[in-house]
Amino acid sequence: MNFKFHFKSVLLILFFIASNSAYSQKDKPNIVIIYVDDLGYGDIGVNGAIGVKTPYIDTLAENGLNFTDAHCSASTCTPSRYSLLTGSYAFRNNAAILEGDAPLIIDTTKETLPKMLQKAGYTTGVVGKWHLGLGKGKIDWNKRIPLGPKEVGFDYSFLIPATGDRVPCVFLENQKVVGLDLNDPITVSYGTRIEGYPWGFKHPELLKQHTDPYHQGAVINGISRIGYMKGGKDALWVDEDIPFVLSETANGFIEDHKENPFFLYFSLHDIHQPRIANIKFVESSTMGPRGDVIAQMDWCVGQITESLKKANVLENTLIIFTSDNGPILDDGYLDYARELVGEHKPAGIYRGSKYSVYEAGTRMPTIVHWPEKVKPGTSDALLSQVDLYKSLACLVGQDVEKGAAPDSQDFLKSWLGKSKKGREFLLEEAYTYGLRMGNWKYIKPKNKPVPNWIVQKFVDPGFREEVQLFNLEDDPLESNNVYKAYPDIVKVMEAKINEILN
Ligand code: NG6
Ligand code: CA
Predict the structure, then answer these.
(1) Which residues contact 147 (CB under 8 A, 6 or more apart)?
(2) Which architecture, in CATH terms, is 31-174+240-422?
C-alpha cells in the first residue's frame, strides 16, 4: 500500500514536470525574420512610399512596432547576413559580397543564432537567399553540398545559393539541387568563360533586360547573369515564379512545425535585381519593375502572415520584418528604376544608398510584430541587427556559448518596445566605416578612389580624405560636415571606432 502510494506520487511528480516543461516549451514564441533584399527605409507605405502600395507591411506596422533608427550591420548583403547569423561584425572575417561558387564563410565549429535557438528547442529553417557561401572548396553542384545551412544550424533549407543575378540559377533543398537530371550535370564558372548557356554580351537579342558589362555572362530565362553555367536545364528556376516558390515553401515550413516552436529565416529575393515581376504584379506600381517587385514582395509578406493566422500561431509569433542593406536604383540592369522613380524616395529623407556609409546604407525599414507581447507604436531606439542574436537568446532563456556572438548585445527590451534605450555606439560597415553615438555620426576618412563599378551606379560611398561628422538631430541629411567645430566629439568617436576595428 505504502509502496503503491509512493509509486503514484512519483508518477504524478514526473507527469507534472513533463507537462510543465512541455507547456513552457510550447509557450515559447515562434520567431520569423522576414529579410528583404535591398529594400530602403522609404520603400514601404508606412514610411512614406509614393507610387507603390504595401498594404500587408503597413498592417504589420499598424499592429506592431515601427523602428525609425534600426540598422543592418553593413550596406551590402553578405556582411549584413553574416552579422545577423553570427553576432559578429563582418570585418572580423573580411566578409564581403561573395560570388556564387564561394565557400561557406561561417565557422561551423562556433555557435550561431540558429544553433542557439536549436538548443532552446526550436526547429529552424531558412527559405530564400543565402549568399554566405557553400562547401569548402570547389563545389560539385551534382551532389549534396557538404557545408551549408545544416552545419550552420538550420534543420531545413531551401535556397537561392547566392543572388538572383548570379549563377547557378537553381534552388537547393537541404543542400541538393532541386529537380536535377544527373544526365545533364551542372558546371559553374566565375572568371573563365565556359560553353553552355549563351553569353549575354554575344546575344543581346535573347535579353528581357539589357545590362552593364558586369552582368553579361550566362543567359538564363532571358536574363544575363554574373558568371557562366552549363547543364542543369530541368532544374533552372523561372525568375517570375520565385516569389510563389519561396512563399509556398515558407508556408509549408510553418504548417509542418506549427505545433512546436520554430524559427524561420525567410529571406526574399525581392527587391534585388534582376527585378522581373510576375505578370500578377506587372504595372501594380507607377515606378516600373522596381515598384512592381515591391508590391510583389509585400504580397509575399501577406502570404506569411496569412499562413501564421491559418496555423493559429500569429498571436504568439514574433515577426521581425527588415532588410539587408539600403536601396539602389541602378545596380546594373536597365529596368528604368531611375527614370521612373518620380517623387518616391527609396531611402526616405536619408542620404546614401546600398554600398554607402551614409545613413541610407544601413538605416532599415524595421517592424516588430508580436500581438501577445508587443504594443503597437513607433520607436526611435538606435538598434543594430547584430544584437538580435543576444536579444533573442535572452527572449528564449538560452545562454550564449563562450566566444560566440562577440559583438552582439542584449537589447530585447528595446526590440519589444519596453524601453527606448539604444546602443551607446553603433558601427555601420560599408566600404569605409561609420559610427553613431546618439545623434552624432562619424565617418572614417578614406583616401582611395571610388571603384569604377560603384561610380557607374551613381552612388556616393562616402569616401573623403577628411573626417566627416554630422549632427543628425538638426542635419538628418548628413549635409553639413561639422568636424572642425567639435574636436572633442571627433576624438571620442575616433578612439571608439579604432578600438572596435583593432
Ligand atoms: C555587386 C554586383 C551586383 C549585386 C551585388 C550584390 C557587380 C558589378 N555588381 O558586386 O549586381 O549582385 O554585388 O548585391 O558585380 S547584394 O545585395 O547581394 O549585396
Ligand atoms: Ca542586398
Answers:
(1) 103, 104, 108, 134, 135, 136
(2) 3-Layer(aba) Sandwich (3.40)
